[in-house]
Amino acid sequence: MTAAVPATEAAVPAGRDMPRAVTLLVFARDRGIFILWGAIILAFSFWCAPYFATLDNAMLVANAAAITAIFAAGVGIGVMTGVLDLSLPGTAAFAACVVGWLMTHGQPTWLSLTVGLLAGAVVGLVNGLIALRGFNPIIVTIGTLSALSGLAAVIAGGYTFPGLRSLQFMGTDRYVGVPAPVYIVAVLFLAGFLFLTRTRDGIRLMAVGGNAEAARRSGIHSERYRVLGFVISGLCAALGGLVSTAVTTEATPEASPGIIFNALTAVALAGVALTGGRGSLPRVLVGALILATIANGLTIRGVQPYWATVLTGVLLLGSLGLERVIQRSVSNRLMATANLSVHSGKA
Questions:
Q1: 180-195: string of b/e by CB count within 10 Å (b at 16+)?
Q2: Among candidate residues 12, 93, 62, 46, the one with its CA nearest the CA of residue 258
Q3: Torsion of CA 251, 253, 257, 260, to 10 degrees
Q4: Average of per-residue pLDDT across 296-314
Q5: Is 140's pLDDT higher than 80?
Q6: Residue 18 pLDDT > 70, yes or no?
Q7: Which pLDDT score, from 0 to 100, does residue 33 have?
Q8: Using one digit for the tens of pLDDT, what is the confidence trace for 45-80?
């Protein structure tokens, strides 16, 4: 016995299901990283029971992800603006040594931190202004990385600035059981999210990243916003360097390449388009948390740390492949829907 099909449903072309498929694909692209993180947490909760799924361990993961998240915010906002700043490790070391020098020469903590953050913003401004002269931003920031690493060593005299215990309030101290860097990350990402999604300048920043020429023709000063992207990136790098200094109570001139690697990995896992104009800071934060979660779970199981790097690389390649497949599928389905609408209109 065949069930009767209502005439209204029978008259609907099969192509009308296309928008729903596109919606599901876009959901997978934009929310897939949250599902992935949930799956990783669930897997480690069983594999590393009973030590992984505890509040104390959650604080360890959040604290471990904090510094990577700060640098990833700088990289992410820069990429969304259409620029890739590779000078972050040098900026972090430079800002840390500036703060270390000031504090060891009797300057108050608040003034030292303010100057350190301003140093990062100035580095970003210089990078932006040089890039506007027509130079490749990647080459410019690589050159800046080298110069800043040398300047940091000059300021420190080739050594470090140890014993900066007055910075513990933003490093090793806990408030209501939560490490101080976690609060800093929360404030940074909330402010960044609101800026990018709720302010005119933030929305224009994303528009410039998507298509600088189209933004310029619509009356937006695209060059100004590209420089702003560099400034924000430099500011985040300086903040990351200061938090790192606060955690170790020591300012070092060493520019660790792992900083940019981890930040770029978190941004790539978050699905931020390297072409600019599309991305989400909450997803960048989850990308940093995924890296910390993997490292934490494998450590609990006694697995060698280098396997965390291997697994992270596999996840990164997989996410890039999935991103490309989804983008192609969305484009193909939208084209099919458009063609179907055209043919239906002619009929």
A1: bbbebbeebbeebbeb
A2: 93
A3: 60
A4: 86
A5: yes
A6: no
A7: 85
A8: 999 999 999 999 999 999 999 999 999 999 999 888
By the 10 Å C-beta count (0-12 exposed, 13-18 middle, 19+ buried), 20 is classed as exposed
Q: Kindly list the domain boundaries of the chain, sorted by start residue.
A: 22-329
Residue 240's nearest CA partner among 58, 62, 61, 73 is 73
Residue by residue, DSSP assigns 174-220 as EETTEEHHHHHHHHHHHHHHHHHHHSHHHHHHHHHHH-HHHHHHTT-
* CA gap 150, 38 in Å, rounded: 42
pLDDT higher than threshold 90 for residue 42: yes
Is the CB of residue 13 less than 8 Å from the CB of residue 344? yes
- The SS3 assignment for 140 reads helix
What separation in angstroms does the CA of 50 have from each of 101, 107, 296? 45, 47, 14
Q: What's domain 22-329's architecture?
A: Orthogonal Bundle (1.10)
The residue with tokens 């500011």 is 235
pLDDT for res 130: 94
Three-state secondary structure call for residue 251: strand
Compute and round to an integer the Cα radius of gyration of the chain. 23
Q: Does the N-terminal peptide bond of residue 50 adopt cis geometry, omega within 30 degrees of 0? A: yes
- Residue 176 identity (one-letter amino acid): V
Range in 66-70, 77-81, 110-114, 247-251 with the lowest mean pLDDT:
77-81
CA separation for the pair 242, 167 (Å, rounded): 9
Tokens found for residue 11: 């008259």
User: In sequence order, which ranges of the chain are alpha helices (DSSP H)?
Assistant: 7-10, 18-47, 55-80, 88-104, 109-131, 137-156, 180-198, 200-210, 212-217, 222-248, 257-269, 281-300, 306-346
Closest to 75 (Cα-Cα) out of 295, 283, 323: 283
Torsion region of 177: left, alpha or beta (phi above 0 gives left; psi -120 to 50 gives alpha): left
Residue 181: closest CA among 36, 61, 4, 301: 61
Percent of the chain with pLDDT over 70: 86
Name the band, by pLDDT with cuts 50, 70 and 90, for residue 13. Answer: very low
